[in-house]
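Researcher: Following up on the earlier apo prediction. This time include the ligand. It's NAP, with the SMILES given after the sequence.
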Amino acid sequence: MKTITLGKSSLPSSRLAYGCWRIAETEDAGRTTGRAAILAAIEAGYTLFDHADIYGKSRAEAAFGAVLRETPALRQQMLIATKCGIRFAGEPTPDAPFRYDFSAEHIIRACEGSLRRLAVETIDLYQLHRPDWLMDPHEVVAAFEQLRRQGKVREFGVSNFQPSQVALLQKACPFPLVVNQVEVSLAHLDCFQDGTLDQCQAEQITPLAWSPLAGGKLAEGARRLLPWQENYRVDAIVTELDAQAQSFGVARGTLALAWLLKHPAGIVPIVGSTQPEKIRAATQADQLHLSREQWYRLLEAARGERLP
Ligand SMILES: NC(=O)c1ccc[n+]([C@@H]2O[C@H](COP(=O)([O-])OP(=O)(O)OC[C@H]3O[C@@H](n4cnc5c(N)ncnc54)[C@H](OP(=O)(O)O)[C@@H]3O)[C@@H](O)[C@H]2O)c1
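Model: Understood. Below is the ligand-bound prediction.
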């Protein structure tokens, strides 16, 4: 697979990342299908692996850690990204609500938990999962600096941040934030118009695209969607994808990933399938070259109307 440097860092990533959200819905799945998916992704050339402390209630990081314990040499050929900041209801006290928490104490404790589960000494990319309404940028940066000084994290990024929130945190942070991980796909175009991708290009921040296939709706179908994704209307997009995919000789999902790769911001789609054959098929996306006309035909199908 081709590579791309993440933001202003020196971290070289595969052009597509592999997302571990769905690899361990149960402990058993983590040991079986999850393990097979991780090994298939490594074999297929993915080098950036995306996690969060909460994926599968921490089972995803644990399943990944088990693979690394089994074959420690794999660590050398990959970048490990994970996230913190979302806290479930009932933790640590029964009356605690679902919330976001960027307190220094929580960031540091969450990072140490991830390091333990992933069985690594350093996280390559540590991301804040969803903007905390109570974010104090100086407190966040103090936590980042401590984690960096201790060698626990190499680079930092954010996820689901608005451009103004990225600017606010970056203003307080002495080193560059290297990614903003956001939902972007043919079924969800907000980032093209709300300044997110413009900021990424202007500031050399790599956009990581989550749900690049709208949870499966743009490909062979969804297993589990986030609530708002249920409402995505994709019929016209799928029709246009099918027409073009046939001429490229690829699956429609692969073409939907190639559509993201063409954008000059250097979008890195995070592939979320747990099926080895789909994980492999997705890698063909970085060999496809859509013309401007093909790209805009898909955009028109996604918008449901001609551009003004
Ligand atoms: N930062 C955030 O807030 C956030 C939120 C959500 C996700 N993420 C990250 O983004 C990653 C990807 O998200 P996602 O899983 O929603 O991505 P996605 O690629 O949009 O959806 C993957 C789902 O689509 C199905 N699918 C059907 N056909 C497919 C095909 N041809 N190729 C690939 N998948 C196909 C998969 O099922 P099968 O397994 O059966 O193939 C899987 O359930 C996650 O793993 C996570 O790392 C981040």
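Model: Residues 19-22, 50, 129, 159-160, 181, 210-216, 219-223, 251, 253, 270-275, 278, 282 surround NAP (CB under 6 Å).
Researcher: Noted. I'll compare it with the apo version next.
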